[in-house]
Amino acid sequence: MMLTSAMLASALPAFAQPREVAGRSRDVQQPLSLYLPSAVASAPLSLRENDIIITPALSVAYDDNIFRTIKGADGRTDELIVAPAVSARIDRILGGAQVTANALYGYEIFTFNPDRSRPRLALGARGTAGIAGTCSITPYGEYNRQRTDFGDLNAPLDNTIRQTRFGATATCQRPAGFYPLLSAERYESDNDGEFDYADQRTTSGIVGIGYRRPSLGQALAYYRRDDITRPNQVRGGSSVDRAGVALDRAVSPLLTASVDVHWLSVRSDDPLIEDYGGLGWRAQVVSRALTPLKIEATAARSVVFDTLLTTAYAVQSSYSLVGQMQVNELTSATLGFDYRTRDFRAPPGGVRGGLEKDQSPIFRAGLARQMTGRLFLRLDATHSRRKTEPSIGDFDATRVTASAEMRF
Question: Domain boundaries in the chain?
């Protein structure tokens, strides 16, 4: 999915993400690189020590509208999903190089509709090697296989998407001063036969000049090019150009801000598909001023090509407000609201169901508890709605999920 890159938290499912664990090392992340194709996967590594983390997990979710059936239609179906999974992460410091690899295998068991049960798989690796003093190169690769969400289809239609991503980022970032950055990536996605019109091949390249100073943060002026082809479509190619500036700054010990503002241009090989030109952005503010509350606000405008709804692309705007409170040393609570709009661009008849636009508010809440040094419990609830133009794909759905994991 080729969004403004910091929107990509990583393609790995939640249980495969690195997490802070008392007494455990992890990758010390650099400030968000908003301009990279994959903000997590392509960022240089900074490991503290060698480590291995193995995490078996189990979640049970109840969904009152699993197939996202539209309002007023027959066939609204609830579902109880039991999803065991196991993930592993390995960190290694090898002389002048650092390497991390992770893997997840899980299985979603639909207890009311067992024929729809599916496995999910995620694999990833990246490494950073120093070159000529301050320079480094970070190659990376990912593979994911999982079920797509029913939300775009509003019907009990199963599709498994297989995503492959690999690339490399080279930079000569210093503690202070100017530095160059180069990044290249290849992304491929394949869907089941009925949805192969959405298959995608994307080649991305970035060149930039950055400036970094501890008292000011860091900034980067960059140009990014994405060339997208759809192998199962005639005239299915598109190109996306971005030119802009990305900034990361700690305004104070309790307030950090990141912003990426760029000119965004989309052109298609199909003359029936409308081109797009305008500003793209992603801005994020994180505040810890109201201890023990952490507040995170995000706003973004981007283009989206990975959707089963259209043969072309969508202009997407998204907004998020999340509050997280540390109730005590072992318990935290989260409350959030997300809002997304999409404006579909396609030739006549190129959007499934004839949709032109949609908007999706999502309310979410969660509670997490560390029971022991290894056992972690979570309870999450989400309520999502969707309103479309024309109003033929409206739905609402509520999901409650209880999960547990052991970390070794």
Answer: 5-406
Class of domain 5-406: mainly beta
Backbone φ and ψ of 352, nearest 5°: -60, 125
Q: Which two tokens stand for residue 43?
A: 């960022």
The gap from C-alpha 337 to its chain's centroid, in whole angstroms, comes to 17
Give the tens place of pLDDT for each residue, 239-266: 999 999 999 888 888 999 999 999 999 9
> What is the distance between the terminal CA atoms of the chain, rounded to a whole angstrom?
32
Do 156 and 150 contact (CB within 8 A), yes or no?
yes
The 10s digit of each residue's pLDDT in 66-121 is: 988 888 777 789 999 999 999 999 999 888 889 999 999 999 999 999 999 999 99
CB atoms within 10 A of CB 394: 17
Quote the tokens at residue 324.
């997280």
Pick from 230, 222, 225: nearest CA to 240? 225
**Phi, psi for residue 284 in degrees, rounded to 5:** -140, 135
CA 134 to chain centroid, in Å, comes to 30
Instruction: Specify the DSSP class assigned to residue 234.
Output: T
Parallel, antiparallel or unpaired: strands 200-213 and 177-190: antiparallel
Read off the tokens for 137.
């190169």
Largest CA distance in the chain: 65
